[in-house]
Write a structure and sequence with these properties.
binds adenosine monophosphate, 18 helices, about 600 residues, globular, Rossmann fold, alpha/beta, GMP Synthetase, Chain A, domain 3, 27 strands, nine-stranded mixed beta sheet, six-stranded antiparallel beta sheet
Length: about 600
């Protein structure tokens, strides 16, 4: 039985650090719309919606087949939208490349042929570790066409998270760049025995290839433009997304081709995508948002999507929104807070004439962020909620509904949400408004994960009957709006990225000076949380500034900058339960000066 308690307080604490403005607790829906909203009458659509009916809007393949890439690419490339821009790619160095649906199909077909020629079979796993370059998109779609399972890795990961995930996933193929391979994969290559092919996206003439390495451009040049997309079955594995828990190794959430039905429905109802939209999802495809909404959902709707290779830069972002005439923008609270911090005056010289809808996901969005959208763009920011396991947006503020700033909105059509409390014998559904409990969803939506790879037990524990228990604490108000309260576990959300404390602790423990390590999320006004570690040293080692810096460097090198701790404190010993588990909750309470709560299981001082 998991104890229900609030571990994440970033929302409350972060808000106190931002300028406070007294604004209305409700933003009324607009009186008129640039385009007729898909979810104009939410209640009526929720009453009549069915997933079976939604499925009929997709093309499908012979024999009842369904393939994400067929819906995202072939459907448009084989029809009137063949010459419509699918991807507008903006290079970090100022380059701009437009790929039409026809181009994307040709390249994805070549990639699928190249995989087949290498002997990579349907169901095998391909990992992608790359910056947001065109090859990433071609590889993901080409692999899906061939029925090969795609698993994206965040390019800022260090060697350790990469090796762990590729190992767990049994990765047969890796698509990456020469630079990333040399820095991050070569040092751990022998830890990934299943890896049979490394496809390098940016080989220069004369480059020496690693063992089993191939020049991806050369493979694509030689491959045929024609490929018959594999008629995968709706429940066939398509995507493997790694996510973090509190304990143990990362979990490989398994998603199937049928998930595309949810990407289609949520692209319509949560993001209000229309055919002439230019859509920009700022998430990196190394994370689930960047795959579900940075690749699949926009293409399934046949719209033009923006891909920006560069890292966050306020002026660049405003210029993209203006010059690329972005109409629907999906971003994240950390990015919004960074834009707020950079100052709204930066936006004044730009005109966002086509922008009509802004949404955000990944962490709590402060009410100030919602209002900042109104002040800066004349549009509020619509918070929505989902997680790796749900595969797509579940709860959302939508275009034609009132917004209550600070709330993540209401369940989308086809989604039944509940507030539950766990008890010894199961869960109790709480109907009374404003009572805190765990968010649960009735299973049955198509993008629901179908298992954690090789961990049936962990998967089973996520369900009580037909309810999937999300691990998030929420409240629902009398009007059905959901309010995020915190997590039921110790995972950390930093800049929207989920980080497992265990993975960080394990990397620290590999340092010869470290006897034990405990890792927590520390509230941060911009990033939501930052990773902080507490370390007890082995005898013979003394705390010092030099050692602290060495440990920070050690963790950064192994884990990468997005996962490694930003702060390390030394402690003579760490609080543990009598069964030996580090009490991160206590470390966190002590760090933040909060009540220590129940310490009855604390191991007595020796
Ligand atoms: P991930 O699986 O990495 O996408 O992380 C999912 C988790 O991020 C959720 O379980 C929540 O804890 C958090 N999250 C996502 N969206 C929101 C939101 N709109 N408000 C608050 N927390 C969110």
């Amino acid at each position: 039985m998991r104890e229900v308690r609030v571990c994440s307080l970033p929302k409350v604490l972060a808000m106190t650090e931002l300028p406070r403005t007294e604004r209305s607790p409700r933003i009324r829906k607009p009186a008129s719309f640039a385009l007729p909203p898909h979810l104009a009458d939410r209640d009526a659509i929720c009453r009549t919606f069915s997933w079976a009916e939604a499925r009929r809007h997709l093309a499908g393949l012979p024999g009842g087949g369904l393939n994400i890439a067929a819906e995202a690419v072939d459907r448009y490339a084989n029809g009137a939208r063949r010459d419509h821009a699918a991807i507008v790619w903006l290079g970090a160095d100022g380059g701009r490349l437009v790929l039409t649906y026809g181009d994307l199909q040709r390249l994805a077909n070549r990639f699928a042929n190249a995989l087949t020629a290498l002997g990579v079979a349907r169901g095998e796993r391909l990992f992608i570790l790359a910056p947001r370059i065109p090859a990433l998109y071609v590889a993901a779609l080409g692999a899906l066409k061939a029925g090969v399972v795609v698993s994206p890795l965040f390019s800022a990961f260090g060697p350790e998270p990469i090796a762990t995930r590729m190992n767990l996933g049994g990765g047969r193929v890796l698509v990456t760049t020469a630079a990333l391979y040399a820095r991050k994969v070569a040092p751990v290559r022998e830890q990934i025995p299943t890896l049979a092919h490394v496809l390098l996206a940016d080989c220069a003439a004369g480059d020496e290839l690693p063992s089993a390495g191939h020049d991806l451009d050369a493979l694509l040049r030689e491959a045929s433009d024609e490929f018959v997309t594999v008629a995968t079955q709706p429940d066939e594995l398509a995507l493997l997304h790694f996510t973090s828990g509190t304990t143990g190794k990362p979990k490989g959430a398994m998603h199937v081709h049928e998930a595309v039905v949810a990407h289609w429905a949520t692209g319509m109802y949560a993001l209000d995508l229309h055919p002439e939209d230019v859509f920009w999802c700022t998430a990196d495809p190394g994370w689930v948002t960047g795959m579900s909404y940075g690749i699949i959902a926009p293409l399934v709707h046949g719209v033009t999507m923006i891909v920006d290779e560069a890292e966050f830069d306020p002026l660049r972002w405003y210029r993209i929104l203006q010059d690329e005439r972005v109409s629907v923008w999906y971003t994240a609270p950390t990015a919004i807070r960074m834009l707020m911090k950079a100052g709204s005056e930066l936006a004044r010289d730009f005109r966002f004439e086509r922008l009509r809808f802004i949404a955000s996901v990944g962490e709590p969005l402060n009410p100030q962020g919602v209002w900042w959208g109104l002040d800066t763009f004349g549009l509020p920011i619509h918070d929505n909620w989902w997680q790796t396991e749900t595969g797509g947006i579940m709860i959302a503020n939508t275009v034609a509904q009132d917004i209550k700033p600070g709330s993540m909105g209401r369940p989308l059509p086809g989604i039944e949400a509940f507030v539950v409390q766990r008890h010894q014998g199961g869960v109790e559904v709480i109907d009374t408004p404003d009572v805190e409990g765990e968010l649960a969803l009735r299973r049955g939506w198509p993008s629901m994960f179908r298992g954690y790879l090789n961990d049936e037990e962990r998967y089973r524990k996520c369900f009580a009957g037909d309810l999937y228990l999300t691990g998030d604490l929420v409240k629902r108000d009398a009007e059905g709006y959901y309010w995020f309260v915190g997590r039921t576990d110790d995972v950390i959300k930093s800049a929207g990225h989920l980080i497992g404390p265990f993975e960080v602790e394990s990397a620290l423990m590999e340092h010869p000076a470290v006897a034990e390590a405990g890792v927590i999320g520390k509230p941060d006004p911009v990033l939501g949380e930052t990773v902080k570690a507490f370390v007890a040293l082995k005898s013979g080692f003394e705390p010092s500034e030099a050692l602290r810096r060495e440990l920070l460097g050690h963790a950064r090198k192994r884990l990468g900058p997005s996962v490694a701790p930003k702060e390390i404190d030394f402690a003579p010993r760490l609080p543990r339960t009598r069964s030996g588990k580090i009490m991160r909750r206590l470390l966190r309470a002590r760090e933040l000066g909060l009540p220590e709560g129940d310490t009855s299981t604390l191991e007595a001082d020796k």
